[in-house]
Amino acid sequence: MPSMKYTLKITGAEMHITAQSLNEEEADAVRVYADDNEEDLLNINGEIDTETLPGYDAWNTNMWVLDKPSDDADASFVVEDANGELACEFELSDIKRVKKPASKPLLAMPGENGAENVLLCVSNSKGTVCDFTFESSEPPVAEDFTYVVGELVTPAGKGTFIDKVLFKGQELEFGYDSQDTDNIGVTSQLFLTGGDEEEQEE
Questions:
Q1: 3-state helix, strand, coil in the chain (%, to 5)
Q2: Are strands 106-107 and 117-136 parallel, antiparallel or unpaired?
Q3: Given 11, 90, 119, 202, which is the most exposed site by the fewest CB atoms within 10 A?
Q4: Given this model, what pLDDT does residue 106 score?
Q5: 3-state DSSP assignment of residue 35
Q6: Strand pairing of 76-81 and 96-97?
Q7: Considering only CA atoms, which of 2, 3, 5 is closest in space to residue 175?
Q8: How confident is the model at residue 199, as a pLDDT?
């Protein structure tokens, strides 16, 4: 039987987070911005503007950009054939989580990997997050898919997300042609070298 093309789409919460390393002068500028707006450093409303941080682009940063689906219970999967016809649909709980290929944790830790102070920008969005195109000689079913969880590590705690999706053991490539999410809000968080969460909230 000849192979057919299929597209898998994941809908749910989007983990769209970026990390920027800031020097002391830049971190002080963000602190002043937070003070002026009466906000704590772990919950600054919106992106930090370029007047505060000249040249800063919240979605094109000097550390990393994460844009992947959350691994919460609301994540749902739809597979369509090349004609847009439904092949199958399932929930995250219907497929198996595996540990390989392993994922390296994303670090937002001051003092790690050359980062000084770390500024996170977190976009809270929901909708169709991503898609994957693959071929199969048989109609795909939920049991054909597995996933790998990735981990985000910050001084305030850890978060997880769907880092890899596999079809019959083969890792699929993330695509964003079908991405259609509604933004609920954006917050920024500043983690300081040598600081802890309580000190940053004072």
A1: 10, 50, 40
A2: unpaired
A3: 202
A4: 94
A5: helix
A6: unpaired
A7: 5
A8: 42
Higher pLDDT, 17 or 102: 17
Mean pLDDT of the chain: 94
Residues 6+ apart with CB under 8 A from 110: 116, 117, 118, 155, 191, 192, 193, 194, 195
For residue 89, the number of C-alpha atoms closer than 13 Å in the C-beta half-sphere is 9
Q: Tell me the backbone φ, ψ of residue 75, rounded to 5 degrees.
A: -65, 130
Asked, as a colleague might, if the bond just before 101 is cis with ω within 30 of 0, I would say yes
pTM (2 d.p.): 0.90
Instruction: Give, in order, the Cα–Cα distances in Å from 157 to each of 4, 77, 145.
Output: 43, 28, 29
Concatenated DSSP letters of 171-191: EPPPB-TT-EEEEEEEEEEEE
- Nearest 5°: phi and psi at 197? -60, -40
Going by C-alpha positions, the residue among 29, 27, 193 that lies closest to residue 110 is 193
